[in-house]
Amino acid sequence: MKRQIRLRAVIATSVALVAAGTVTAGVGIASPEHKTAERRPPAAAAKPTPKEIAGLFDAWNAALRTGDPETVAARYAPDAVLLPTASPKIRTNHGEIVDYFEHFLQKKPVGEKVRSVITVLDSNSAIDAGLYRFHVTDPATGAKKAIDARYTYEYEKRGGTWLIVNHHSSVLPAEG
């Protein structure tokens, strides 16, 4: 008899807890904290700072200085689009991006930003657009020159890594 009374009390308590939403089916009794945690959306990843996004150019520029086209191309997403300064061809895959840098790196380019406008879109995407200057060396003559260009880098964080998904660069036109 006592056992029946205890069983009814357990059942009644369980029914009340299910009705109150503090029990998850098949899991057992949940604490009020557990209930609250279940209803909260997952914490959003923090947005990167403009300084962090600016550092992505520095890492790309450092990759240029390695002289290795694969190292540079590794900074790009597999489906990236590259509209380069020194080629009329649109590069839309890893092999084409490597091919571009095989030729461009022969000039030993070193980039420097002149003006940068960074827009952080969300925790996984940002745009860096502005003006940069490349110091290049003619491989045949050794002559050095500076090339001013406009740029846009669109970055996405994929699998925890920031990658370039779109890069456009064009020679800065003369004012007029």
From TrEMBL:
Superkingdom assignment: Bacteria
InterPro entries: Ca/CaM-dep_prot_kinase-assoc (IPR013543), NTF2-like_dom_sf (IPR032710), Steroid_delta5-4_isomerase (IPR011944), UCP028470_steroid_isom-rel (IPR016887)
Cited Pfam families: CaMKII_AD
Residues in coiled coil: none
Keywords for this protein: Signal
Domain Calcium/calmodulin-dependent protein kinase II association-domain residue range list: 51-172
Endpoints of the signal sequence: 1-25
Stated name of the protein: SgcJ/EcaC family oxidoreductase
Organism: Streptomyces coeruleoprunus
